Amino acid sequence: MRYRSPTAHPKKDIMDFALSDEQKAIRDTARSFIRKEVMPLEQELLRRERAHQPGLTRDELRELQSRARKFGFWGLSTPQEYGGMDLPAVTQSLIWTEIGRTILPFRFGGEADNILYHANEQQRREYLLPTIEGDRISCFAITEPGAGSDAANIKLSARRDGDDWILNGEKTFITNGNDADFAIVVGVNDPERGVRGGGTTAFLVDRAMGWRSEFIQTMGEGGPASLVFEDVRVPGRNVLGEVGQGFELGMQWIGRGRYIIPSHGLGIAERALQMAIDHANTRETFGRPIATNQAIQWMIADSETELEAARWLVLRAAWTVDQGVDPRHSSSMAKLYGAGMINRVVDRVLQIHGGMGYTRELPIERWYRQVRLMRIYEGTDEMQRLIISRDLLRGYTTIGGHLG
Ligand SMILES: Cc1cc2nc3c(=O)[nH]c(=O)nc-3n(C[C@H](O)[C@H](O)[C@H](O)COP(=O)(O)OP(=O)(O)OC[C@H]3O[C@@H](n4cnc5c(N)ncnc54)[C@H](O)[C@@H]3O)c2cc1C
Fold first, then answer.
1. Which residues does the UniProt record annotate as the domain Acyl-CoA oxidase/dehydrogenase middle (predicted)?
2. 373 lines ligand 1 (CB under 6 A)
């Protein structure tokens, strides 16, 4: 540190922005694992993707995950009774930032969709435990061709037939939809009550029960799928949670990603910005490094400032989750600002790299395509703004009210 304030001395009542020793230790172990075990595969991933092959196979991902398990990383959010770490949200956020540093589509294993914990005893054995172990792949399906932001407009119908349910309709843009062997599907069982009035239910639907998926090409690597249900018969015992609870579970599922997505984005921004700094210091034009130009310096300064602002929004959102306080307002701000920040930073980093930034030799153009999604899924920018402004306009929260 080059600067030390003459008044800097420990005070008992100051606000503490420091991480605890335990948080730092877990973050550093995750960083070391990502650096030593995951990042060395990046060149191969880029090579495969240039050849239009899948970047990372499922077996390779599982192999990495089982190596991480030996390091102690298994089930970041999974309760300890299921063998997980059950980490506080702030620690999970720090780890997701470390994961964001690698371009590999890596995540630690031992996780299941948060709403699968509403499973009954039999569903635990059939769906929850094998998903945690990585033996089964799930997907979560609420979006439909006619209902994305307006999720309350879903139409997939769930009709009772004796003890069973018959599902008809289509879901779209479902992550893992082409690989999953079961889907958590939200359908409308009681149109009279409506989606918000308790007229929807979530079902655990095996692919073997008859739904089919169609891959959707996107600007990112990998891609979601449409799921088509034509008279798919689902046994009554496959209702997840209660009949009528579907929309509520759907909102719970979506809520979790709101601080995870920007946590991941922070890691991408950190790594990309460091690449830009290194490049600016070494690339010479007109006989001097491009870092000597104010145009480049300002891009670096703006990126660092926005990254830091996003970091505190994200950590506060995660902290709010840990406090057991309603995290929706702070999570929406973290997702809105964090997703915008990462898009702006990657754009500047690409600009600083000039033509090389545009090539597939470097990961930058890949990030450029990948991070665009962060402004769309699990609630678009506009939906986050709707939530933030509604909370203020209706008086659910006050400006700066969280400071007490
Ligand atoms: C790669 C990918 C993966 C996804 N994974 C999943 C998944 O696993 N499961 C799942 O269920 N869904 C998933 N989704 C769906 C995703 O959540 C939706 O795409 C998203 O919620 C937006 O819905 P939409 O695409 O129908 O856009 P629309 O709702 O049609 O919105 C179009 C535009 O209008 C804006 N808009 C809409 N209403 C308003 C308003 N009232 N005021 C101002 N602006 C408005 C939106 O913000 C957007 O800019 C995924 C999507 C993608 C692209």
1. 139-231
2. yes
**Spacing, Cα 375 to ligand 1 middle (Å):** 9
* Triad 375, 300, 37: Cα angle to 5°: 70
Cα(104) to centroid(ligand 1), Å:
25
Evaluate if residue 264 carries a pLDDT over 90.
yes
Dist CA 247 CA 60 (whole Å): 35
Q: How far is CA 209 from CA 171, 228, 233, 241, in A?
A: 16, 12, 7, 20
d(CA 79, CA 156) in angstroms, rounded, equals 32
- Selecting among 111, 144, 170, 378, the annotated active-site residue is 378
For 7, the token pair is 């008044």
Q: What is the 3-state secondary structure (H, E, C) of 160-191?
A: EECCEEEEEEEEEEECCCCCCCEEEEEEECCC
The pTM for the full model equals 0.95
Is the Cβ atom of 106 under 6 angstroms away from ligand 1? Answer: no
If one counts every other C-beta atom within 10 angstroms of the C-beta of residue 10, the result is 5
Q: What is the pLDDT of residues 197-254, one digit of tens each?
A: 999 999 999 999 999 999 999 999 888 999 999 999 999 999 999 999 999 999 999 8
| Per-residue confidence (pLDDT) for residue 10, from 0 to 100 | 61
160-166 average pLDDT score: 97
Please report which confidence band the pLDDT of residue 9 belongs to, taking 50, 70 and 90 as the band edges: low
Q: Which residue has the tokens 């678009």?
A: 380
User: Would residue 382 show up in a list of annotated catalytic residues for this protein?
Assistant: no
- Closest residue by CA, ligand 1 atom 6: 174
User: What is residue 19's DSSP assignment?
Assistant: P
- Kindly report the protein residue whose alpha carbon is nearest to atom 29 of ligand 1: 149
Residue with the smallest CA separation from ligand 1 atom 38 is 149
- The residue with tokens 């999970």 is 92
For the record, the structure tokens of 289 come out as: 């490094």
- Predicted confidence at residue 11, as pLDDT, reads 65
Ligand 1 pocket mutation pick from 114, 149, 335 by most atoms within 8 angstroms of CB: 149
253 lines ligand 1 (CB under 6 A): no
**What is the amino acid identity at position 186?**
V
Q: What DSSP assignment string belongs to 342-373? A: HHHHHHHHHHHTHHHHTSSSSSHHHHHHHGGG
Both tokens of residue 80?
């300890």
Q: Ligand 1 centroid to 324 CA: how many Å? A: 28
Ligand 1 contact via 149 beta carbon (within 6 Å): yes
